[in-house]
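Section 3.1: Structural characterization of target chains.
Under the original work plan, the team committed to producing a structural model for every single-chain target entering the pipeline before any wet-lab resources were allocated. The record below documents one such target. The sequence was received from the expression subgroup and is listed exactly as submitted; it comprises 212 residues.
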Amino acid sequence: MQFTGFEPQDFDVFTIDGLQPRMDALIANLRVKLTQLGVDCTPLLSELTGEEMFAHVAKHARRKTNPPHDSWVAWSKNKKGYKMYPHFQIGAWNTHAFIQFGIIYESPMKGVFAEQMLVHLDEIKQTLPSHYLWYPDHMNPQGMVMSEMEQADYDRIAHRLANQKNGEVMIGTTIPRDEAIQLSPEAFLARATEVFQTLAPLYQLAFSTVSV
């Protein structure tokens, strides 16, 4: 195990003003932990998906003025990148850490997942804990709590996925920063393992076809 656990400075990087100062702190602190998690969780995700998975730590290389508000490590089956594929993530905002599965706007598999999501929605709602969150916009840290969602919410997410260029969805859970800091490395990895095991069936839906 490489992960050494989260510390306050891993979350505090997002309070630093200015792109370069924030990036310098992010690279020195949080990115180290994300890289460690990338190594530790790759074998688990490869086993859960039945495919060789690769870790991709966010570099935020395209940013020229605005500093990042969050950062993450993502796993996909492609060695070169993750944005085109269904993927898993662990990351952090200033207020919390997150563990998720999702498909963002660049993936050509959005339509398949949208269709499968609705076909298997009853099963999904029975399988995922009611406190899990759905994010129709991965840049917004405020997700919709499953226990408060109605059919119209799922329909809206599926419609955007299938029909709009910017349609996307992330699904998972959060850990408040103070709790994440207090968790031992072993305890955090155990939590991540549990969440990834719960989310793994969603990954398979993205590579499925609707059965008649």
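The chain has a mean pLDDT of 93.
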